[in-house]
Structures are given as structure tokens and as C-alpha cells.
């Protein structure tokens, strides 16, 4: 009984050896963390071009996001099989959505807003895994980093809502890019397919919920007595058009 009690309360060793063992045991998770950190660095390098060309930093950030998405798909859907079921499972993965997202904008001149969703996703996931890495070093290690991570996690819901709003706002913005000569004619059609996948996401309902919130906000604005008739008509036309484009949700 004494041996059992001792074994039950024994703690895992902490320190650099534990950190090295964790890295060796969870290579893909650590690689995902590294690509997300790279995304953060390149995005900051785009906004604050002190060390790199901002143009190159923009595309490196998208490529880092593509690498993250590809690694995550390998982790969740390994091994690959050429079947219809595997294809539908692939299309349902959030990582596949953002791999497609990176591919869309890799062939478009830099658009600052495009980096916001990938930066925020990298920030959330990198912060979460950084906490696990710090735990291998000890509970009291790097308290300043732990405080910063806790602030990010505290705001995680607001960050996810901002990501979903940006995803939606980028849809009409891609049309504006065509008018400005900064995107091809197929860019809005490809982005619409991305937005459809985000709307249908089973693991992340924030985009779908944001559509509902925006619809409620617009309808509330249109129904106010102070809203002019022409503006009310325009708003309701926009809502009706968006509802016609909304995909049906597949059965669970």
C-alpha cells in the first residue's frame, strides 16, 4: 500500500531533460508549434519590416500557415486513402479549409487583412502549446510568458469571433480587389467555396454563428423607424441575397 501511495503521488521530472524528451516524443506537435511561431514572426515582419522584405514576409506567413495545415491534416487523416469517404472527411477538416485559404491568396498581391485570421489562429494554438512546453520545464518557469499566454486564452472567444468576422468580410472585399485590379476573376468564386466550408464546419461554429449575428443586426437596423425606406430596402436585399447563397447544413 505504501508503494502504491508513493507511486500515485510521484511527479513527472521537470527541466531541460523533460523538455527534450517531450520534443522527441511529440515531434509533429512540436513541428506544428514551430510553424505557427514562424507564421507569427513572418506576420510581424510584414507589419514591422526591420529585418526582412515585407513582400517576402507576407508570402512566407501564408506558406507557414499552409505547412501548419498540411501537418495537421497528416496528423488527423493518416494514412491517405483514395476513397470517397476520405475525400468528404478531408473537406470537413478545418485544416483543409485553411490550406485552401493559403493557396487562394498565394497568387494575389499582398492584402493586409488576409493575414489576420492565420495570425490569430497561430497565436491561439501556439500559446496553448507553449504552456505545455513550459510545464515540462516546471510550474514556476517563465512566469512572464505564462501571464501573456493566460491573457491570450482569456480572450480566445473574442479572438475566434474576430476571425469569423474577418472571414466573412473578406468575401465582398475580394470583389473590390477585382475592381482594383489586384485579384483575378476566379478569386471570389474560390473564396466563396472556402466560406462555404467554414460555414459547414462541425468543430468551429463561430463563422456560422457570426452570420446569424450579422443577419440579426442588419434586420434590427432595417426595422428601426428611423431607417430610411431606401436603406431598409437595400439592407433587406443584401440579407436575402446572402441567405440564398448560404449552404444547407449536412446531417450530423
From TrEMBL:
Its main location: membrane. The keyword Transmembrane helix applies. It is a multi-pass membrane protein. The chain crosses the membrane at residues 30-52, 98-124, 168-192. The keyword Acetylation does not apply. The lineage of its organism: Eukaryota, Metazoa, Ecdysozoa, Arthropoda, Hexapoda. Belongs to the PER33/POM33 family. GO terms for biological process: endoplasmic reticulum tubular network organization; membrane organization. GO terms for cellular component: endoplasmic reticulum; membrane. Pfam families: TMEM33_Pom33 (PF03661). It comes from Megalurothrips usitatus. It is found in: Membrane. Keywords: Membrane, Transmembrane, Transmembrane helix. Signal peptide: none annotated. This is Krueppel homolog 2.
Amino acid at each position: 500500500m505504501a508503494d502504491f501511495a508513493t507511486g500515485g503521488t510521484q511527479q513527472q521530472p521537470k527541466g531541460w531533460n523533460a523538455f527534450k524528451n517531450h520534443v522527441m516524443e511529440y515531434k509533429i506537435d512540436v513541428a506544428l508549434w514551430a510553424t505557427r511561431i514562424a507564421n507569427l514572426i513572418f506576420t510581424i515582419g510584414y507589419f514591422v519590416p526591420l529585418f526582412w522584405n515585407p513582400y517576402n514576409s507576407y508570402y512566407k506567413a501564408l506558406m507557414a500557415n499552409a505547412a501548419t495545415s498540411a501537418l495537421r491534416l497528416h496528423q488527423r487523416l493518416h494514412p491517405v486513402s483514395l476513397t470517397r469517404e476520405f475525400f468528404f472527411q478531408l473537406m470537413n477538416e478545418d485544416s483543409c479549409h485553411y490550406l485552401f485559404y493559403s493557396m487562394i491568396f498565394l497568387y494575389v498581391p499582398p492584402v493586409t487583412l488576409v493575414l489576420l485570421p492565420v495570425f490569430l489562429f497561430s497565436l491561439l494554438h501556439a500559446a496553448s502549446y507553449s504552456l505545455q512546453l513550459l510545464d515540462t520545464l516546471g510550474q514556476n518557469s517563465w512566469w512572464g510568458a505564462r501571464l501573456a499566454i493566460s491573457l491570450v486564452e482569456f480572450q480566445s472567444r473574442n479572438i475566434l469571433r474576430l476571425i469569423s468576422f474577418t472571414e466573412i468580410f473578406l468575401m465582398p472585399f475580394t470583389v473590390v480587389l477585382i475592381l482594383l485590379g489586384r485579384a483575378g476573376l476566379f478569386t471570389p468564386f474560390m473564396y466563396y467555396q472556402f466560406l462555404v466550408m467554414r460555414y459547414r464546419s462541425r468543430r468551429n461554429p463561430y463563422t456560422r454563428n457570426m452570420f446569424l449575428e450579422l443577419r440579426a443586426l442588419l434586420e434590427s437596423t432595417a426595422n428601426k423607424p428611423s431607417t430610411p425606406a431606401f436603406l431598409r430596402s437595400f439592407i433587406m436585399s443584401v440579407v436575402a441575397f446572402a441567405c440564398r447563397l448560404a449552404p444547407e447544413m449536412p446531417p450530423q
